[in-house]
Specification:
Elements: E1 5-12, H1 18-25, E2 49-54, E3 57-62, H2 72-87, E4 99-105, H3 113-125, E5 130-135, H4 137-140, H5 142-154, E6 159-162, E7 168-169, E8 175-176, H6 181-225, H7 238-241, H8 247-251, H9 257-263, H10 272-303, H11 307-322, H12 324-351, H13 358-362
Parallel strand pairs: 1-3, 1-4, 4-5, 5-6
Antiparallel strand pairs: 2-3, 7-8
Length: 375
């Protein structure tokens, strides 16, 4: 099985220590070029990535040009283009952006409107895991707590992690050790697992619906092509007349929720997998029970002492026989429709207010639209 990389973007104004943070976080001394308050990532290298391995996970880290007053419009245009490209294939999770680090220099003790705007765009609009990293936390003193309070006030729910990315020996023999790396990575992987679990579960609902839709169309085509005339009803062998597809083969290309999580290096042990399978199985079992009850009711009618019930049973049986094709298709659509409705409810639960799949949903072709709540 191919291993997918977790895609991370690193953003922030020039001179806040993005490159030093990346070198420290991913233990890659010198790979990310550092400078002294000046832009070191060129526009040609904007949003280019470096790949690392950490605790069994592949990490793709996309570095960015530092934000400055005179490049904001250009930077924002490239950022929006980059994010749009990463949303272009919503059914391919390896192309998504899975999280972001927004870096602020804690010693500056300033949270500017551009910072707040981008933090909100990432956390609230893009709905991806986000950590605000406060660099130079070793020398910032009380400014760190003040910045944390301000960020939590203006951007509720955003995680803020103080960090020092370099060890420094100061006058008098004192030294400052780098800190924060383990806290940042541990929290990020926890956030990433939760994020991927929900979004992959929503995607699995759509994948499942697509496979069921193809299966339904294949079975209906078989029914419509079959010779089910009333004159052959006594000799009719449906198994021979309607050769159904191999359902194992139909579902073989449907990559499971657990498989996707494993591809990103996470153990697929969340309840979501069982919830998806149980929901579909329960609907099919309930529908099968109802169908058996319908036929049992007709059978009981024929065996009844009541003439009225016998006539009613004969009428129901005749109606089924005379309209066998349309009846079979109607029952099929009813069963599949119920499964789709159950998947709709699960999709709403998993996606919540994340509109990431909106463009994909617009292109869905539905069998019977009135049965589907959201598509």
């Amino acid at each position: 099985m191919d291993q997918f990389a977790i895609n991370i973007i690193v953003l922030g104004k020039s001179g806040v220590g993005k490159s030093s943070f990346c070198n420290y976080l991913f233990d890659q001394a010198g790979l990310f070029e550092t400078g002294s308050g000046k832009p070191v990532t060129s526009w040609e290298k904007n949003f280019q990535s470096h790949t690392f391995e950490h605790q069994g996970h592949l990490l793709n880290v996309f570095d960015s040009v530092g934000l400055e007053a005179d490049n904001y419009e250009r930077w924002l245009k490239q950022f929006d283009s980059f994010m749009q490209q990463r949303r272009a294939r919503p059914m391919e999770p390896e192309t998504w952006i899975h999280g972001a680090f927004y870096v602020i220099n804690a010693s500056s003790a300033r949270l500017e409107p551009v910072d707040v705007n981008l933090i909100k765009r990432l956390g609230q609009d893009a709905r991806i895991p986000l950590q605000v990293i406060l660099t130079n936390a070793d020398v910032a003193g009380d400014k760190v707590e003040a910045l944390q309070r301000e960020i939590h006030h203006l951007c509720p729910g955003v995680s803020v992690t103080p960090l020092c990315s370099v060890s420094v020996r100061r006058r008098g023999g004192q030294s400052t050790q780098a800190f924060g790396r383990d806290e940042v990575l541990s929290l990020y992987l926890e956030q990433s697992h939760a994020f991927l679990s929900k979004r992959l579960a929503a995607m699995s609902c759509l994948n499942f619906k697509g496979v069921l839709r193809e299966m339904r169309n294949t079975v209906v085509a078989k029914i419509e092509q079959a010779d089910l005339s009333i004159f052959r009803i006594a000799d009719l062998d449906l198994d021979t007349e309607i050769e159904l597809p191999d359902f194992d083969e139909v579902f073989s290309d449907l990559k499971g929720f657990d498989d996707y999580l494993s591809s990103f290096g996470f153990v697929g042990d969340w309840e979501t997998s069982d919830e998806l399978e149980n929901a579909v199985t329960r609907v099919f079992d309930d529908f099968q029970g109802e169908m058996e009850s319908r036929f049992k009711e007709i059978e009981d009618g024929f065996e009844s002492d009541s003439l009225l019930r016998k006539v009613g049973a004969l009428y129901e049986a005749a109606k089924i026989i005379l309209t066998l094709k349309s009846t079979m298709i109607e029952w099929l659509d009813e069963g599949f429709g119920r499964v789709h409705a159950a998947l709709d409810q699960l999709f709403i639960k998993y996606a919540e207010d994340d509109n990431f799949f909106a463009s994909h949903l617009k292109g869905c072709v539905l069998i019977r639209p009135k049965l589907f709540g959201i598509f």
